[in-house]
Design a protein that fits this description.
The complex is a heterodimer of chains A (229) and B (107). By secondary structure, chain A is mainly α. Chain A has 2 domains: 2-68, no CATH class; 78-228. Chain A is 77% helix and 0% strand. Chain A has 8 helices and no strands. In chain A, helix 2 runs antiparallel to helix 3, helix 4 (78-112) runs antiparallel to helix 5 (116-142) and helix 6 (156-196) packs antiparallel against helix 8 (204-228). With 107 residues, chain B is mostly helical. Chain B has a single domain, classed as Winged helix-like DNA-binding domain superfamily/Winged helix DNA-binding domain (Arc Repressor Mutant, subunit A, Orthogonal Bundle), CATH 1.10.10. Chain B contains 5 helices and 3 strands, in the order H-H-E-H-H-E-E-H. A 3-stranded antiparallel sheet of chain B has the order 1-3-2. The chains are: A mainly alpha (229), B mainly alpha (107). Chains A and B meet through helix 2 and helix 6 of A and helix 3, helix 4 and helix 5 of B.
Chain lengths: 229, 107
């Protein structure tokens, strides 16, 4: 009889989206139905009555299909997933390239007898600049949440979901701005330091960067607060 | 009876959360508990129950984990989260208010 219940679920799930979530759901519901069937038989119901009762209590499973279409915050549609993988791969490639530039600058200064410090610092600055695009790419890739589409039913769960989604977005944007500020500060630091040799003063740039970051954060928080009111 | 089940169905999520406040549980067990508490008068349709689970999970109100049964099929358990507790409290309060209003109107 277990097999008959399984068969029934296979039939009603035939039109379900082909996702892991849908498969899990089918197995979970099948197990639940089998549990119920066994309990009813143990309580003295005839096998046929128990089967009918179990099948009747399943209800309309098609209402479940939109839920298992991997539309949650962490699953992306196939197209976006490919884009995300591409971005990550390119970013890693650029990081390796930056590392190679730095190493090459070291070898260059040794091999050709240029001033070691200058060549290596220029190499370092160049490497850092090359690191900007991959950083931006990674932050953007991490920021790729699918938009939360409102369904006609607006209950407490939907409201919570919407708020969660909104804060996720805001956090991601703030993270992007923060990483940009620090990368730019690093570039300014090395560029000014190398051109002026005022290494003893230029560290103040990092304090300025910290201030700028706090200001940006404050502006951001004030703005989102306004939006929520 | 149809009004009763309509109203009850509208509160499926809150009923599940209330049940999970007591202990972690799995789908069939929750439905059995509901039947027991209502003296076998009310039972959720499986589709209604699992659809509510998915929505609660996506909203972060519950989390799931696989049980460690050694015999038989493994079960997926549900546990309430901190967000779920908050949602439950909010829901309970709203229900109290609605109940008072309806009581007044139907007197």
């Amino acid at each position: 009889m277990d097999e008959r219940i399984r068969q029934h679920f296979n039939t009603i799930f035939a039109e379900a989206p082909k996702t892991r979530m849908a498969l899990d759901l089918k197995q979970e519901m099948t197990q639940s139905a089998i549990d119920k069937y066994n309990d009813m038989v143990a309580d003295g119901y005839s096998e046929e009555d128990a089967y009918q009762n179990v099948i009747d209590s399943i209800g309309d499973v098609t209402e479940l299909f939109p839920e298992v279409e991997e539309k949650n915050l962490f699953a992306l549609p196939e197209k976006d997933r490919k884009k995300k993988a591409m971005l990550t791969a390119c970013a890693v490639g650029l990081y390796i390239f930056a590392g190679a530039i730095f190493l090459a600058s070291g070898m260059l200064s040794e091999g050709f007898g240029f001033d070691e410090h200058i060549v290596m610092t220029y190499g370092f600055v160049l490497a850092i600049i090359i690191c900007i695009p991959p950083t931006v790419m990674l932050v953007y890739a991490a920021n790729m949440y699918p938009g939360y589409t409102k369904r006609e039913k607006q209950d407490m769960v939907d409201q919570i979901k919407e708020v969660n989604h909104r804060t996720n977005r805001e956090k991601a944007v703030l993270k992007t701005i923060r990483s940009l500020i620090w990368t730019i500060a690093l570039i300014i630091y090395f560029t000014i330091s190398i051109s002026t040799f005022a290494w003893n003063v230029t560290w103040i740039i990092f304090l300025i960067a910290a201030c700028v970051q706090k200001i940006v954060q404050l502006v951001f928080e004030l703005r989102t607060e306004e939006k929520h009111l | 009876m149809s009004i009763t089940s309509d109203i009850l169905r509208g509160h499926t999520e809150a009923i599940i959360l209330a049940n999970l406040l007591e202990q972690d549980s799995y789908g069939y067990q929750i439905n059995k508990d509901i039947m027991k508490k209502t003296n076998n008068t009310y039972e959720l349709k499986e589709a209604t129950l699992y659809s509510a689970f998915r929505r609660l999970e996506q909203a972060g109100c519950i989390r799931t984990y696989w049980g460690d049964e050694t015999v038989g099929a493994r079960r997926r358990y549900y546990a309430i989260t901190e967000d779920g507790r908050k949602a439950y409290q909010g829901y309970k309060q709203e229900w109290q208010e609605a109940k008072e209003i309806i009581d007044k109107l139907l007197k």
